[in-house]
Amino acid sequence: xTGSRIAIFGAGYAGLVTGACFAELxxxxxxxxxxxxxxxxxxxxxxxxxxxxxxxxxxRNRERLRYTLDAAEAVRDAExxxxxxxxxxxxxxxxxxxxxxxxxxxxxxxxxxxxxVMKSTVPVGTGEKVRAALDxxxxxxxxxxxxxxxxxxxxxxxDFLEPDRIVVGAFEEADAEAVARLHAGIDAxxxxxxxxxxxxxxxxxxxxxxxxxxxxxxxxxxxxLVGADVVRVAEGIGLDHRLGPHFLRAGVGWGGSCYGKDAxxxxxxxxxxxxxFQLLAAMIEVNELQRRRVISKLxxxxxxxxxxxxxxxxxxxxxxxDDMRDAPSxxxxxxxxxxxxxxxxxxxxxxxxxRLVGAxxxxxxxxxxxxxxxxxxxxxxDELRSLASPETLGAMRRPLIIDGRNLxxxxxxxxxxxxxxxxxxxSSALDLLPETAEPDLREPARED
Length: 448
Ligand code: UGA
Fold this sequence. Notes:
Blueprint: E1 5-9, H1 13-24, E2 28-32, H2 36-43, H3 54-60, E3 65-68, H4 71-75, E4 80-83, H5 98-106, E5 114-118, H6 126-136, E6 142-146, H7 156-161, E7 166-170, H8 173-182, E8 190-193, H9 195-226, H10 230-238, H11 259-272, H12 278-302, E9 309-313, H13 328-338, E10 342-346, E11 360-362, H14 365-369, E12 374-377, H15 390-395, E13 400-403, H16 410-415, E14 419-421, H17 438-442
Parallel strand pairs: 1-2, 1-4, 2-3, 4-5, 5-6, 7-8, 9-10, 9-12, 10-11, 12-13, 13-14
Antiparallel strand pairs: 6-7
Uridine-5'-diphosphate-glucuronic acid binds near residues 258 and 259.
């Protein structure tokens, strides 16, 4: 098979993963970005983002990957041009498409047949507008396809090369076929749709996933009131084949660069079209409140948080990444600082020193919990599975673990001498700890 020639605009997360995976499938890929440091790093063999396996994939396919700052050079000879630029939210909550429009404007006039493929997440109706803009520029021979990405950080390569489905929305059947052919070698159903439906599949998928999480988080909150355990409940729900087991882990709420942005974009899209999407509005609010519940959990055990020391364990929005965009940790830390707590943070790779002024980032879990009145698991890093150790017990001022991801076994944690509170499960109070643990609890504050 001879591969196709592909240009990719945007050397961010989606662009690099898409480019590297298409190269792996045998295509020749030129990745273009406007940031000189990114391009020179890539040309020098360095990968500017963290994603497991990406560096190796790029290295293995380096013969088929080129990088440039020059839009015209990227597009020259390209049969398909992928748009992988970011679409952050504006102040109104709508998606900011300015980077997408810049790409359209930069497309050099050419008489060659090219297909513009939208990977970036865009509001429904964007394809129609781009089509009109292309026609207005005399680029009516340039095809347009919506081919949304479903890459989750940490598993992105697998998500691309072994996806559940490939969605292709096109105005012309031949363009849909051309994009589908690029994926030859991948065993997955291809969902062909009109452009608007393809755009909606992406927004609805993310909204549905985050709704599942907000739903199980609300079930968890009720579980706490009525004495049920959400972990068992989720297991029981998930075995129903109509519901499935995924995205039913209760916790301190969802985060990351996509869910909040896409939910808000879909809510605005509905609103701008005359529909009030109540469920989505509630789902977003539930998540906001879920993050803040950690504060009331701490207050329940410690009373006023002024002058207490709280260790926040995990800063990244999920394990396996250093990404802190819209991470629950940032909201929890800010609330704690506002309550007058002394905040320590720890994360194996994410660094919040610039963002969380007033909090102290520690290099080890032990350092973070030493002298602390509570340890809060915010991200379920593997390193935290052994948190309820004698070492931690000896180091903390008060042995309280708030398990924001239900990572630990409550019985084990209690047996190890800690008070424990998870999300949606029975909690145990500091004053109910066995006698033997009591002297430690009453010890005066240690010097840090
Ligand atoms: C998400 C989607 O999973 C991808 O399919 C999509 O392509 C991507 O957004 C995007 O639009 O680009 P990602 O943001 O990397 O991917 O993260 P997820 O793995 O979906 O997790 C998001 C958040 O939900 C994390 O904070 C995670 O801790 C939380 N989560 C996830 C829960 O609280 N409970 C769960 O059961 C699952």
